[in-house]
TrEMBL record:
It holds the Pfam family Porin_4. GO terms for molecular function: porin activity. This is Porin. It comes from Paraburkholderia tuberum. Keywords: Cell outer membrane, Ion transport, Membrane, Porin, Signal, Transmembrane, Transmembrane beta strand, Transport. One of its GO terms (biological process) is monoatomic ion transport. It is a multi-pass membrane protein.
Length: 301
Protein backbone atom coordinates (compact mmCIF):
# COMPACT_ATOMS: atom_id res chain seq x y z
CA UNK A 1 0.00 0.00 0.00
CA UNK A 2 1.39 3.37 -1.01
CA UNK A 3 0.57 6.69 0.65
CA UNK A 4 1.22 10.14 -0.76
CA UNK A 5 0.10 13.73 -0.44
CA UNK A 6 -0.05 16.56 -2.94
CA UNK A 7 0.16 20.24 -2.09
CA UNK A 8 -0.18 23.37 -4.18
CA UNK A 9 0.11 27.05 -3.41
CA UNK A 10 -0.32 29.86 -5.90
CA UNK A 11 -0.03 33.64 -5.60
CA UNK A 12 -2.43 35.89 -7.54
CA UNK A 13 -1.46 38.31 -10.33
CA UNK A 14 1.01 41.20 -10.24
CA UNK A 15 0.34 44.75 -8.97
CA UNK A 16 -1.12 47.20 -11.45
CA UNK A 17 0.04 50.76 -11.88
CA UNK A 18 0.39 53.37 -14.60
CA UNK A 19 1.98 56.75 -15.21
CA UNK A 20 0.00 59.74 -16.33
CA UNK A 21 1.21 63.02 -17.86
CA UNK A 22 -1.04 66.04 -17.98
CA UNK A 23 -0.28 69.39 -19.60
CA UNK A 24 -1.79 72.39 -17.83
CA UNK A 25 -3.27 74.98 -20.15
CA UNK A 26 -5.69 77.78 -19.29
CA UNK A 27 -7.44 79.91 -21.87
CA UNK A 28 -6.50 83.57 -21.43
CA UNK A 29 -8.79 85.70 -23.56
CA UNK A 30 -6.69 88.84 -23.57
CA UNK A 31 -3.61 86.96 -24.74
CA UNK A 32 -5.57 85.11 -27.38
CA UNK A 33 -4.18 81.71 -26.49
CA UNK A 34 -3.34 79.18 -23.84
CA UNK A 35 0.05 79.67 -22.21
CA UNK A 36 2.09 76.63 -21.28
CA UNK A 37 1.94 76.29 -17.49
CA UNK A 38 4.10 73.18 -17.32
CA UNK A 39 3.27 69.55 -16.74
CA UNK A 40 2.21 67.32 -13.88
CA UNK A 41 3.38 63.71 -13.64
CA UNK A 42 1.45 61.23 -11.53
CA UNK A 43 1.94 57.57 -10.70
CA UNK A 44 -1.55 56.03 -10.71
CA UNK A 45 -2.36 52.85 -8.81
CA UNK A 46 -4.50 50.22 -10.46
CA UNK A 47 -6.43 50.89 -13.62
CA UNK A 48 -9.40 48.80 -14.63
CA UNK A 49 -9.11 46.79 -11.41
CA UNK A 50 -7.24 47.25 -8.14
CA UNK A 51 -3.83 45.88 -7.32
CA UNK A 52 -4.13 42.84 -5.11
CA UNK A 53 -2.01 40.20 -3.46
CA UNK A 54 -2.47 37.01 -1.53
CA UNK A 55 -1.93 33.28 -1.26
CA UNK A 56 -4.06 30.25 -1.99
CA UNK A 57 -3.38 26.58 -1.62
CA UNK A 58 -4.86 23.13 -1.35
CA UNK A 59 -3.86 19.76 0.03
CA UNK A 60 -5.28 16.45 -1.12
CA UNK A 61 -6.40 14.25 1.76
CA UNK A 62 -7.56 11.27 -0.27
CA UNK A 63 -10.80 10.07 -1.80
CA UNK A 64 -11.07 13.09 -4.05
CA UNK A 65 -11.21 15.49 -1.09
CA UNK A 66 -9.09 18.60 -0.59
CA UNK A 67 -8.49 21.12 2.18
CA UNK A 68 -8.27 24.63 0.72
CA UNK A 69 -7.34 28.09 1.91
CA UNK A 70 -7.33 31.51 0.27
CA UNK A 71 -5.97 34.86 1.46
CA UNK A 72 -6.35 37.89 -0.80
CA UNK A 73 -6.58 41.65 -0.38
CA UNK A 74 -6.31 44.86 -2.36
CA UNK A 75 -3.68 47.53 -1.77
CA UNK A 76 -2.48 50.84 -3.14
CA UNK A 77 0.98 50.49 -4.69
CA UNK A 78 1.70 54.19 -4.10
CA UNK A 79 1.40 54.17 -0.31
CA UNK A 80 0.78 50.55 0.69
CA UNK A 81 -2.72 51.24 2.01
CA UNK A 82 -4.92 48.14 2.19
CA UNK A 83 -8.53 47.88 0.98
CA UNK A 84 -11.69 48.75 2.89
CA UNK A 85 -13.10 46.53 5.65
CA UNK A 86 -16.59 46.21 7.18
CA UNK A 87 -15.93 48.90 9.79
CA UNK A 88 -16.11 52.41 8.41
CA UNK A 89 -12.77 54.14 7.97
CA UNK A 90 -10.69 51.00 8.56
CA UNK A 91 -8.71 48.72 6.24
CA UNK A 92 -7.84 45.02 6.28
CA UNK A 93 -4.79 43.19 5.00
CA UNK A 94 -6.98 40.47 3.44
CA UNK A 95 -10.17 42.40 2.74
CA UNK A 96 -11.36 40.17 -0.14
CA UNK A 97 -10.70 36.60 0.98
CA UNK A 98 -9.62 35.00 4.24
CA UNK A 99 -11.15 31.53 4.01
CA UNK A 100 -10.47 27.92 4.84
CA UNK A 101 -12.59 25.05 3.63
CA UNK A 102 -12.93 21.69 1.95
CA UNK A 103 -13.94 20.41 -1.48
CA UNK A 104 -14.86 17.04 -2.89
CA UNK A 105 -17.63 15.13 -4.64
CA UNK A 106 -20.15 16.89 -2.39
CA UNK A 107 -19.12 20.35 -3.69
CA UNK A 108 -17.20 23.01 -1.77
CA UNK A 109 -17.52 24.51 1.69
CA UNK A 110 -15.65 27.63 2.83
CA UNK A 111 -15.64 29.63 6.05
CA UNK A 112 -14.40 33.18 6.55
CA UNK A 113 -14.48 36.53 4.78
CA UNK A 114 -15.10 36.31 1.06
CA UNK A 115 -16.78 37.71 -2.02
CA UNK A 116 -20.45 36.76 -1.75
CA UNK A 117 -22.12 34.15 -4.00
CA UNK A 118 -24.57 36.80 -5.26
CA UNK A 119 -21.75 38.75 -6.93
CA UNK A 120 -20.63 35.71 -8.94
CA UNK A 121 -24.22 35.07 -10.04
CA UNK A 122 -24.56 38.68 -11.20
CA UNK A 123 -21.22 38.61 -13.05
CA UNK A 124 -22.13 35.43 -14.91
CA UNK A 125 -25.31 37.01 -16.29
CA UNK A 126 -23.78 40.33 -17.36
CA UNK A 127 -22.10 40.92 -20.74
CA UNK A 128 -19.48 43.06 -19.02
CA UNK A 129 -18.80 40.47 -16.33
CA UNK A 130 -19.58 42.90 -13.48
CA UNK A 131 -16.60 45.03 -14.52
CA UNK A 132 -16.19 48.51 -15.97
CA UNK A 133 -18.71 51.33 -16.26
CA UNK A 134 -22.22 50.31 -17.26
CA UNK A 135 -21.95 46.80 -15.80
CA UNK A 136 -24.27 45.25 -13.25
CA UNK A 137 -21.68 46.09 -10.57
CA UNK A 138 -21.96 49.84 -11.20
CA UNK A 139 -25.76 49.55 -11.22
CA UNK A 140 -25.69 47.73 -7.88
CA UNK A 141 -23.29 50.32 -6.42
CA UNK A 142 -25.68 53.03 -7.63
CA UNK A 143 -28.53 51.37 -5.77
CA UNK A 144 -26.46 51.40 -2.58
CA UNK A 145 -25.53 55.06 -3.00
CA UNK A 146 -29.21 55.86 -3.46
CA UNK A 147 -29.90 53.99 -0.21
CA UNK A 148 -27.44 56.16 1.73
CA UNK A 149 -24.23 54.12 1.62
CA UNK A 150 -21.27 56.49 2.22
CA UNK A 151 -18.76 54.27 0.38
CA UNK A 152 -16.26 54.23 3.24
CA UNK A 153 -16.77 50.59 4.27
CA UNK A 154 -17.85 47.33 2.65
CA UNK A 155 -20.97 47.14 4.85
CA UNK A 156 -23.66 48.03 2.29
CA UNK A 157 -27.42 48.58 2.76
CA UNK A 158 -28.43 46.55 -0.34
CA UNK A 159 -26.90 43.12 -0.84
CA UNK A 160 -23.18 42.67 -0.25
CA UNK A 161 -19.92 42.45 -2.16
CA UNK A 162 -18.10 40.93 0.82
CA UNK A 163 -19.34 39.12 3.92
CA UNK A 164 -17.28 38.33 7.01
CA UNK A 165 -17.65 35.12 9.06
CA UNK A 166 -19.49 33.60 6.10
CA UNK A 167 -20.24 29.88 5.86
CA UNK A 168 -20.75 29.14 2.16
CA UNK A 169 -21.69 25.88 0.43
CA UNK A 170 -21.48 25.48 -3.37
CA UNK A 171 -23.04 22.35 -4.84
CA UNK A 172 -21.72 20.40 -7.82
CA UNK A 173 -23.40 21.07 -11.17
CA UNK A 174 -26.32 18.84 -12.09
CA UNK A 175 -27.13 19.18 -15.80
CA UNK A 176 -25.81 22.72 -15.65
CA UNK A 177 -27.69 23.66 -12.47
CA UNK A 178 -25.93 24.57 -9.22
CA UNK A 179 -26.86 25.97 -5.83
CA UNK A 180 -24.99 28.21 -3.38
CA UNK A 181 -26.09 28.74 0.23
CA UNK A 182 -24.62 31.26 2.68
CA UNK A 183 -25.03 31.97 6.37
CA UNK A 184 -22.88 34.50 8.19
CA UNK A 185 -23.22 34.74 11.99
CA UNK A 186 -23.17 38.28 13.30
CA UNK A 187 -21.21 37.61 16.48
CA UNK A 188 -23.27 40.06 18.53
CA UNK A 189 -23.57 39.06 22.19
CA UNK A 190 -27.18 38.67 23.30
CA UNK A 191 -28.54 39.13 19.76
CA UNK A 192 -28.82 35.87 17.84
CA UNK A 193 -29.73 37.65 14.59
CA UNK A 194 -27.60 40.72 15.23
CA UNK A 195 -25.50 41.40 12.14
CA UNK A 196 -26.33 38.07 10.46
CA UNK A 197 -26.50 37.47 6.69
CA UNK A 198 -28.27 34.77 4.70
CA UNK A 199 -28.38 34.17 0.97
CA UNK A 200 -29.37 31.57 -1.61
CA UNK A 201 -28.25 31.53 -5.25
CA UNK A 202 -29.56 29.27 -8.01
CA UNK A 203 -27.62 29.16 -11.30
CA UNK A 204 -27.93 27.40 -14.65
CA UNK A 205 -25.22 27.30 -17.33
CA UNK A 206 -25.61 25.23 -20.49
CA UNK A 207 -26.14 25.52 -24.25
CA UNK A 208 -24.76 29.08 -24.26
CA UNK A 209 -27.37 30.21 -21.72
CA UNK A 210 -26.64 31.47 -18.20
CA UNK A 211 -29.48 32.03 -15.75
CA UNK A 212 -29.25 33.16 -12.13
CA UNK A 213 -31.59 33.97 -9.27
CA UNK A 214 -30.44 35.58 -6.00
CA UNK A 215 -32.07 36.06 -2.62
CA UNK A 216 -30.06 37.96 0.01
CA UNK A 217 -31.19 38.99 3.49
CA UNK A 218 -29.14 40.93 6.03
CA UNK A 219 -29.59 42.31 9.54
CA UNK A 220 -28.14 45.55 10.93
CA UNK A 221 -26.35 46.44 7.69
CA UNK A 222 -24.80 49.85 6.93
CA UNK A 223 -24.85 50.96 10.60
CA UNK A 224 -22.54 53.93 10.06
CA UNK A 225 -24.11 57.39 9.55
CA UNK A 226 -22.59 59.82 7.07
CA UNK A 227 -21.18 61.84 9.99
CA UNK A 228 -19.45 58.85 11.65
CA UNK A 229 -17.46 58.92 13.94
CA UNK A 230 -18.93 62.23 15.14
CA UNK A 231 -22.26 60.37 15.28
CA UNK A 232 -22.07 56.83 16.70
CA UNK A 233 -22.84 53.66 14.74
CA UNK A 234 -26.31 52.15 15.14
CA UNK A 235 -26.31 49.26 17.63
CA UNK A 236 -26.97 45.76 16.26
CA UNK A 237 -30.38 44.51 17.39
CA UNK A 238 -31.23 41.96 14.71
CA UNK A 239 -33.12 44.49 12.55
CA UNK A 240 -33.85 43.05 9.09
CA UNK A 241 -32.93 46.05 6.93
CA UNK A 242 -31.29 44.57 3.82
CA UNK A 243 -33.14 42.46 1.27
CA UNK A 244 -31.91 42.02 -2.28
CA UNK A 245 -33.49 39.96 -5.07
CA UNK A 246 -31.95 39.53 -8.50
CA UNK A 247 -32.88 37.73 -11.72
CA UNK A 248 -30.44 37.66 -14.62
CA UNK A 249 -29.88 35.95 -17.97
CA UNK A 250 -27.08 35.92 -20.53
CA UNK A 251 -27.11 34.17 -23.90
CA UNK A 252 -24.09 33.78 -26.16
CA UNK A 253 -24.20 32.67 -29.78
CA UNK A 254 -21.15 32.77 -32.02
CA UNK A 255 -19.39 35.97 -30.85
CA UNK A 256 -22.47 37.86 -29.76
CA UNK A 257 -23.75 38.00 -26.19
CA UNK A 258 -26.90 39.60 -24.85
CA UNK A 259 -27.84 39.92 -21.19
CA UNK A 260 -30.70 41.27 -19.13
CA UNK A 261 -31.38 41.52 -15.42
CA UNK A 262 -33.78 42.95 -12.87
CA UNK A 263 -32.76 43.84 -9.31
CA UNK A 264 -34.86 44.78 -6.30
CA UNK A 265 -33.26 46.22 -3.16
CA UNK A 266 -35.46 46.76 -0.13
CA UNK A 267 -35.35 47.73 3.53
CA UNK A 268 -38.00 45.46 5.14
CA UNK A 269 -37.85 47.54 8.33
CA UNK A 270 -39.43 50.49 6.47
CA UNK A 271 -42.29 48.79 4.65
CA UNK A 272 -44.50 51.89 4.81
CA UNK A 273 -42.10 54.16 2.91
CA UNK A 274 -42.19 55.05 -0.78
CA UNK A 275 -40.58 52.90 -3.47
CA UNK A 276 -38.39 54.32 -6.22
CA UNK A 277 -36.75 53.28 -9.47
CA UNK A 278 -33.25 54.41 -10.42
CA UNK A 279 -31.77 55.07 -13.85
CA UNK A 280 -28.05 55.44 -14.60
CA UNK A 281 -27.00 59.06 -14.10
CA UNK A 282 -30.24 60.12 -12.39
CA UNK A 283 -30.26 61.60 -8.89
CA UNK A 284 -32.59 59.92 -6.42
CA UNK A 285 -33.43 60.41 -2.77
CA UNK A 286 -32.84 57.58 -0.27
CA UNK A 287 -35.95 55.47 0.29
CA UNK A 288 -37.15 52.07 1.35
CA UNK A 289 -36.74 50.34 -2.00
CA UNK A 290 -34.80 50.74 -5.24
CA UNK A 291 -34.96 48.75 -8.47
CA UNK A 292 -32.59 48.56 -11.42
CA UNK A 293 -33.09 47.02 -14.88
CA UNK A 294 -30.11 46.22 -17.13
CA UNK A 295 -29.83 45.24 -20.81
CA UNK A 296 -26.48 44.59 -22.48
CA UNK A 297 -25.14 43.52 -25.88
CA UNK A 298 -21.55 42.51 -26.58
CA UNK A 299 -19.55 41.38 -29.61
CA UNK A 300 -16.13 39.76 -29.28
CA UNK A 301 -13.75 40.29 -32.19
Amino acid sequence: MACFEQQSRKPPGPPRRATRRRKHEIEVEQHGGAPNLGHVYQLKDGGIISSYWGLKGSEEVGGGYKINFKLQGTFNTMNGKFGLADTQGTTAIFNQFATIGASGPFGTFDAGRRITPMIYAMAETDVRGAQYFGSILTAWLGMNQAAGWPGTSTNTPIGALYDSNALVYNSPKFYGTSLALEYAPGGVAGQFQGGTRESAVLKFSNYGLNLSAVYYNGHDTNPFPLTYPAAPAVSATGLANNRFIYFGALYTIDRFSISGSYSIGKNPAKSNSLNQTIIHGALVAPGVSTTAAMIGIRHTF
